[in-house]
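Input record, target 12 of the design panel.
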């Protein structure tokens, strides 16, 4: 009897010790996974120079969106006309987020005239005169007038004509700005930011530095909501 009782007691001790070891291993595994996930998130978080970049929304909004676009990009046109308004209504107009727009002109790289760059320069020229409103106004008109992405359509003459419909622009100053390529260096700097961040398509939207899985309103909204929940 004694021997049996001792055996039973030993078995219980072994079981308890085994359970504690298993729990410890599970805890270590969970910690390691969480640590790896945190490290992965930190590694994928990009930092951008947003000084002097056009933006929409309140400057103190808790979530920062950064959108890279090319004015020749059909997907960007779709984003601006059909998707962005949903984000604007739900998050930007309510003060939850602000959106910066950075040029990533690449579709014209292999064309006789790089009108991706010219279109971006035109938007910057408008921004120089009337700030965020000028950039947004010129952006809206260029997307509305967008031509075939495989053809040169955003010539300086065409862009100057389109700018005439943007409120508040002094056309003499705009023409001088565009004709002199005054904003070209800034546009090239924007493009370099995209390259440095590993952007390979447009539109690409970052939510607090993390690239959204796609540019749908649902996906971007989920990312914004997740970041707001951390505040």
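The sequence produced for target 12 reads:
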């Amino acid at each position: 009897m004694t021997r049996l009782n001792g055996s039973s007691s030993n078995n219980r001790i072994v079981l308890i010790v085994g359970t504690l070891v298993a729990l410890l291993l599970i805890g270590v595994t969970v910690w390691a996974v969480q640590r790896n996930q945190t490290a992965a998130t930190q590694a994928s978080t990009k930092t951008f120079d947003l000084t002097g970049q056009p933006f929409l929304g309140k400057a103190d909004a808790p979530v920062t969106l950064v959108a890279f676009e090319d004015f020749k990009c059909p997907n960007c046109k779709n984003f601006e006309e059909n998707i962005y308004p949903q984000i604007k209504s739900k998050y930007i107009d309510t003060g939850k987020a602000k959106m910066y727009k950075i040029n990533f002109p690449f579709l014209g790289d292999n064309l006789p005239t790089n009108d991706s760059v010219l279109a971006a320069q035109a938007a910057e020229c408008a921004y120089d005169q009337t700030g965020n409103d000028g950039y947004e106004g010129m952006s809206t008109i260029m997307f509305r007038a967008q031509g075939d992405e495989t053809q040169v359509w955003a010539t300086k003459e065409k862009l100057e004509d389109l700018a005439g419909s943007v409120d508040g622009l002094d056309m003499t100053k705009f023409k001088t700005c565009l004709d002199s390529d005054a904003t070209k260096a800034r546009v090239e700097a924007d493009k370099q930011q995209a390259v440095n961040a590993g952007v390979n398509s447009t539109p690409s939207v970052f939510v607090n530095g993390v690239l959204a899985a796609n540019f749908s309103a649902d996906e971007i909204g989920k990312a914004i909501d997740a970041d707001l929940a951390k505040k």
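Residues 55-230 form a domain with the Glutaredoxin fold (CATH 3.40.30.10).
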